[in-house]
Amino acid sequence: MPEDRRSLAGRHVLLVEDDYFIAFDMQRHFESSGAHVVGPVPSVRAALDLIAATPDLDAAVLDINLRGEMAFPVADALSERGVPFLFATGYDTATMPPRYAAHRHCEKPVEPDRIAQILLG
Question: What's the pTM?
Fold first, then answer.
C-alpha cells in the first residue's frame, strides 16, 4: 500500500461534496485506506453541524460550490479548530477570498491518493 494511503489509517476525514458520485468514490477510497469518513455531506449547514458534533477531525476535503452555496463558512470553522483541509474544486484560485487564495486545493477531477498526500503527507 502506498505511504499516503497508510497515512489515512485511523484518521477521521470530513468529506463535504454535493456530487454523489464524487463523494461516493472518495468515501470508498478513503475507507479502503483505513480512514473513518465523517459524512459525506452535501451542504454548508450539514457540514457545520457535523463539525460541531464531531470532536475528532483530522482532516477535511471541501468542494467550494455546494449547490450554489460557497463552502467558505465551513473552511472558517475548520480553521478555527485547527483542522487541516483542502479545497477539491473546479474553481481556480481567483474565485477564492483573499484569506484562502493560497490555501491548498486540488482541481477536479480529483485523485483520492493525491488528496491524502496533500492533506497528510
Answer: 0.87
